[in-house]
## 1
Amino acid sequence: MNAQPENTRLPKVCIVGAGCSGFTTAKRLKDYGIPFDCYEMSDDIGGNWYYKNPNGASACYESLHIDTSKWRLAFEDFPIPEDFPDFPHHAQLQQYFKDYVAHFGLRPHITFNTEVTEAKRTGDGLWAVTLSTGETKLYDALVVANGHHWDPRMPEFLGAFEGDEMHVHAYCDPFDPIDMRGKNIVVVGMGNSAMDVACELSQKPIAKRLMMAARRGVYVIPKYHKGEPLDKASAPAWMPLKLQKALGRYAVKKIIGDQTRLGMPQPDHRPLDAHPTVSSEFAIRLGSGDIEIKPNIEAKLGRQVRFTDGSVEDVDVIIYATGYNVSFPFLKDEAVKVENNHVSLFKRMMRPGVPNLFFMGLAQALPTLVNFAEQQSKLVAKYLAGKYALPSEEEMWRMTKADEALYTGNFYNSARHTMQLDFPHYVRQLMKEIAKGEARAKKQGGKLPVPARAEEAKQKAA
Ligand SMILES: NC(=O)C1=CN([C@@H]2O[C@H](COP(=O)(O)OP(=O)(O)OC[C@H]3O[C@@H](n4cnc5c(N)ncnc54)[C@H](OP(=O)(O)O)[C@@H]3O)[C@@H](O)[C@H]2O)C=CC1
């Protein structure tokens, strides 16, 4: 679709954040001629994928390669460079993002070095958005795209530690922010951050000892199978999710075999009942004796750590790869509360009863988040342009609960499993919902669900 000229009859939108969820939404709004401003607290786009992002929110480390293959993360309307490797480095992804933003002329719409410090609804339902410049601006709709891998979740263990402690969010490389050479290191967690960092630091020239504290075993899935990226072999989206998972479980078990031989505790769940941990290197490091698996930390004892099996080890550094909190520090709205790292949202975007607020990329979409909001934004743009009408509030809640049960129901209880979803299945359902909503909108004569009032209100106030 070619970008339409801005249509001032359409609502004016504020987008918070210019990471991949923010700028793909921006592109979609531009296609529909929907006026918008995008605010980014950093000096450039890219969010999490901008290494050493001066906004302090990126969790990127120097050696980070995405664990989703390039075929699965490519934008629908902007091809990924053919010469990219299967699993691009963060710098390549960031370049791909910059090329996308340049190609679609989005940069002039983004105000850099400007943080949204507060967003609240006015008495008449507009959004009053306050910026770090001190200015407050009125918008008809708000798009929250601030990401959810930036606010480190720190576990609490008994006792005190006298060595170095850090969340993996601060990790850059084996020498920054801490020189890890010759150190006894404990990495807490069994997710993808823990795998990448433990494999890197466990190499003989770096750590003296590398222990991973696992409160449960996980299935570590390799990136490749039979010479091809494993994620290329996904089930078709039309297949019922239950059947997809059953086949996936069988495949995972067959491909990875018995990891307990290498020292991994037997997982207390089935394959695919946890957010997938992906690493081809882990089995080598574990099998080579470079990584030792411990149970969880029980207590910190000065320069030692006691684990739940009673073993006590000398430790210099603890790295917490324990995940992230979902938070929107700027959003002041009674209707949206994060409880247990979770917010229920229609199609993981809208709070029923709040017609002009959208959360983009607020999901653990499998296999990736990179091109997820590009799909979600199809509903948002059509809705704001009056071409899609929502179902009733009651129906929105019913669908939301059904989706949550479908997508997260099989995942074990953990703060990291509150918003899992299967990307291809979700998109197929989303397109069906958009088609239904288009029919509803036609019946309603294309009435704008979010009228353009902000500009007029601004002029009145001036
Ligand atoms: N290469 C890549 O593309 C990478 C992608 N990522 C992605 O970034 C996101 C965040 O990943 P990550 O940073 O690994 O975080 P996750 O939330 O995925 O994993 C956190 C890990 O810490 C464990 N944990 C949490 N609290 C405690 C505790 N109190 N004691 C012991 N263990 C605890 C969790 O265990 P439990 O399961 O029991 O809750 C889990 O193993 C994911 O979507 C991931 O896929 C991350 C790194 C690299």
## 2
Amino acid sequence: MTSATKVNPDLSDERKKVEFDVEEFTNWYYKGAENVAEKRFLENFFLSDPELEDKVPTSYLSHKEKYENAVRKAVLVVNKIKELQADGRGGVDIYMALLGGTLGTAIFREANPITVHFVMFLPAIMNHGTSDQQAEWISRAWNCNIIGTYAQTELGHGTYIRGLETTATYDPKSKEFILNSPNLTSYKWWPGGLGHTTNYAIVIAQLHSLGKCHGIQPFIVQLRDEETHMPLKGIKIGEIGNKVGMNTVNNGFLAFDNVRIPLKNMLMKNAKVLEDGQFIKPKSSVLTYGTMMFVRVVILKDMASYLSKAVTIALRYSMVRRQSPIEPNKPEPKIIEHVTQQYKIFPAIAKVIVFKITAEFLWDMYNQVTHDLDKGDLERLPELHAISCCLKAVCTNEAAQAVEICRLSTGGHGYLNSAGFQDIYGMVTAAQTYEGENTVMFLQTARYLIKCWEKAMNGEKLTPTVSYLENFIKGRNSRQSFQNSPSGILKAFQLAAAKKIAESNKHLEERKKYLSPEEATNQTGLELINASELHCQAFLLQATIEVLEDSTKQTSLQLRSVLKDLLELYSVDLALRYTGSLLEFANMTSSDIEFLQRSLEALLKKLRYNILGIVDGFDHPDQILGSVLGTYDGNVYENLINAAMKSPLNQEDVNKSFHLYLKPFMKSNL
Ligand SMILES: CCCCCCCCCCCCCCCCCCCCCC(=O)SCCNC(=O)CCNC(=O)[C@H](O)C(C)(C)COP(=O)(O)OP(=O)(O)OC[C@H]1O[C@@H](n2cnc3c(N)ncnc32)[C@H](O)[C@@H]1OP(=O)(O)O
Ligand SMILES: Cc1cc2nc3c(=O)[nH]c(=O)nc-3n(C[C@H](O)[C@H](O)[C@H](O)COP(=O)(O)OP(=O)(O)OC[C@H]3O[C@@H](n4cnc5c(N)ncnc54)[C@H](O)[C@@H]3O)c2cc1C
């Protein structure tokens, strides 16, 4: 991955000090040399296409130009994917790479305007459609003959989906549903691509039949004419305006005025309406929520890749930027020599690996559970729901925080759009809200944990992600002293999570004596969130310990040792961030904290000369990073001035505003 330009000697010197084989790490990280070759092939295939390159940085485009440029590219990208598939190449992974991920964001800078078509519209038809409905819609959608979105959230309700107000009323005479938006708060609001891109949508609406409401159900609805793209009769549609980030996505609003759709357009794999209007209940009412779960699982993978870009930029920059002598009369060091700077970046690098490992773990679990669901087995659905909710919350919260710290670690230059952090942050922080606001996600997990606690107290067997509660109840682990090792810290977190769940449950039960169960839950919300977060942190650490142990058996000693250091750094940092809970619940003492602090400092020192190999090993070409501060050659000052010269204002020496406003203003006092 060498650059044609001369590499900044500060960075090439650093590379000489890396003790392990960077390519070996890359192959380990992407699970095999074949995957790395495929990744590089795809990156080259897409990024070498001049049509996908921006002549002017997209941040200088207007809102409308940004959107139009993104749609142009989306079409090119899908056509290129089809080209690859015609050559017998690629499956779902290509979509993963291009709809989100690092390659997709390199092309779009913000996001792909048709991501929701692939990530929600299509999966919703697959998950909720009968085989007849799949036969009718899937191939048209897959070939993009129709483009759809997932219209669930409304102006008035996003979280509490049982409160959605759009209605779909069945008319047995015409065998049609009539869709209506009874008031302003029932307008659909936020669906990706809804504004001007899509012509179909999965609409989540309250089903009414034979005078009764049967709760929310998914309907497939045509919104625009397939030829003219004009909104169909009774449909009011538009875009909701520009946002913190993801401005290429064209999130929209939508209202219905007596829009009729045929009976067969309700997705009926789970619940059904018969021709006479009779409603057949689904096996489980939560099956309607399946599409959301799929996206929560996918989000985790994306967090690891977005964060891997941010840390690469921050670390490379820190190895060429020199500022502030540490010893008087000595030259200014690379800013990475300031220990506080190391602490801003190294733990975030460890997080990339932890999030990626856990995302893969969760992906396998998701596939297993959906396979079971297809056979009618719902047993592990609550567990998957619970773990995916808290992981989505912890990983998006921590990624957003870490990206912001990376930006701050690059000082003033990080505030420039050309540094690349703004686009990454825009993507990551959006995920804190979409697909379930994070506080609400923590509360969903807590609801499950409390149930598990009650089961464990009754001696019932628990599923693997919560089995540590059984150990706690049987008295195992509870009297152990705190141990400063990844597995010791894991035990401490499991103990803290178990005790916090127990304590929350105790307070919940106390409150239930004088409050309704729901209000008691509300009053206990702060503790429940805390319990959920501890549970999630324990899970992240456990999954990483297990996977690292297994997957590094075949690696070189040098690589294994660096990965072990990173795991230790991750766990020590985690323990230090949660001292409050560990002191309260996990037999930690103040001397343990002192020891952890020293371990942290020692680990930063130990990793100092190997850490560049890790970010180089993430293998992001400059185009993927999209940052003047993170290029492989480290020539940041040349990059900064070159990027500044691309500003439209720098294309002329004098701007017309001088003659129009400044000059008359400045001369007016004469
Ligand atoms: C096909 C191939 C294609 C190839 C593709 C290849 C892949 C390519 C990938 C490329 C990368 C792309 C990157 C991503 C970009 C994304 C774009 C952005 C998209 C953003 C989209 C959105 O933003 S779209 C809207 C999401 N909007 C929410 O997310 C609402 C949250 N709000 C709730 O989710 C509920 O409203 C809430 C709170 C549960 C209360 O609902 P409620 O009141 O009914 O629930 P209760 O609390 O009473 O819970 C009742 C019982 O349901 C249980 N349960 C609840 N949910 C469950 C569930 N999901 N599964 C199972 N069980 C569930 C619960 O555990 C209870 O169980 P129990 O009774 O046994 O305890
Ligand atoms: C970039 C982006 C893309 C999106 N794409 C789509 C899409 O394609 N399709 C779609 O349908 N939707 C989409 N959404 C909408 C998104 O799913 C919702 O915004 C999200 O679910 C949060 O709902 P809300 O906006 O109603 O927030 P609210 O629920 O109003 O949250 C506001 C505050 O209230 C708190 N709160 C709410 N309920 C509770 C509770 N029970 N307990 C404790 N606190 C609570 C929250 O924690 C938060 O602090 C998108 C949103 C964004 C930002």
